[in-house]
Every structure is written in structure tokens, then in C-alpha cells.
Amino acid sequence: MTRFINLFTVYLIEVKNQRNHLGTTFMSIAFKSGTALLLTLGVTASAMAPIVISAPAFAQTTFSDVSSNYWASGFIQELASRNVIKGFPDGSFRPNDPVTRAQFAAMIRQAFPNAPRTRSAINFTDVSTSYWGYEAIQTAYTSGFLAGYPGGSFRPNENIPRAQSLVSLANGLQYAGTTSVDTTLQIFRDSADIPGYARGSIAAAA
């Protein structure tokens, strides 16, 4: 997932009760929550996902590598103005860079600052308290957006797949399906490509 895609996902999620589908593939899913949809689109389109990091970054809404006619320009500016995503000290945004699990956790923390805590924090074996994304990872975990791996690891530097970002948002926002998973996913022409672990969550968010 790229930086722009994460951004687009967050923006769409912020559009409350946005139920009309934006496309016919599961990566263009329209979330029940506008903010979640935007964050998802930002994370799902390669070369499209924004990253929120503690450093290096600074507040700005225009970037040297994002032209005004770039298809995601409006989404990037919107998320940047909300401080959900940030640029780099050199004035760039790097829309084609991948997004890691730690960076996605930082975006989640910025996009949903009032998310209720649903479980207690844990100490991941590969995330020290001095790690720049420690607090964001703990917030994303305790609010149910992200989970760890067997053995107690979080894998903060691992790039987050598009499907995983969708599952994260659906879980954190506590979406529940109202119809059968297979019936719901029939609207996507690429439904066969949706990983088994993500099918229920994507269907619930559709």
C-alpha cells in the first residue's frame, strides 16, 4: 500500500454514512463511515497512500511532488489539513512510497483520536517504549484497529497490505454484516482475490 492510498482511505471514512460504492472492486469499497473510507483508499491504491510519522515530518498541505492535477491531490490536501498525514522536511510527500504497520497505526491515531479502548495494552516483543511509533501502536491495538502476531510481535516495519488495512478499519469501527458474506462480496468483480481472513470484515464494511 502506498502513502496516497492510506490517505484516500482516511478521507472517505470521514464522510459519515457514505454508502454508495465508488467502484466495482473491493479496493474501492465505500465504507459506512466517511473517515474510514478515506483512510482505506489512502492505503489501498499503490502509489496512493499517505503516511503519518513522528519524524521526519512537518505540517503542510502542498507538496513538491504532488501537482495540482494529480488525481489524489485533493485527498492529500484534505488529510494534510486535518493533520492525519504529513510531508517530509524536503517538502515532498512521496505518494508512491509503501506504508508500514507502524505508519498506519499513526494514521489511525490521528484519524480516530476518540476511539474507545476495548482491550488492555500489551508489550510487543519488537516495539520498545523508545520506538517513535510506540504510543500510536498501543492506541491502535487497544482500540481494536490493529493486532499483533503469534509470539507477541507486531512487525512495525512490515508494509501493510491493502486487505489488512480494510480489516483494521472494519474491526476498529466495529462494523457487522447484515447479509451473508458471499452475497455482499458479489458486487466486487475481484471478490475471488479477497483473502479469506479479510472477507468477513470487507463485507461488513461494504
Task: Quickly list its features.
206 residues, mainly alpha, 8 helices, 38% helix, 0% strand
Question: What layout of secondary structure does this protein have?
Answer:
Elements: H1 3-14, H2 34-44, H3 73-81, H4 101-111, H5 134-142, H6 162-172, H7 181-185, H8 196-205
Helix pairs in contact: 1-2, 1-3, 1-4, 2-4, 2-6, 4-5, 6-8
Describe the overall structure:
With 206 residues, the protein is mainly α. The chain is 38% helix and 0% strand. The protein contains 8 helices and no strands. The longest helix is centred in the N-terminal third of the chain and has 12 residues, at 3-14. It starts with a helix and ends with a helix.
Write a concise synopsis of the structure shown.
With about 210 residues, this protein is mainly alpha-helical. The chain has helices spanning about 5-15, 35-45, 75-80, 100-110, 135-140, 160-170, 180-185, 195-205. The model is unreliable at about 5-35 and about 40-60 (pLDDT under 50).
The first-to-last residue Cα distance is 20 Å
- Gyration radius (Cα, Å) is 16 Å
The number of helical segments is 8
Low-confidence stretches: 7-34, 40-58
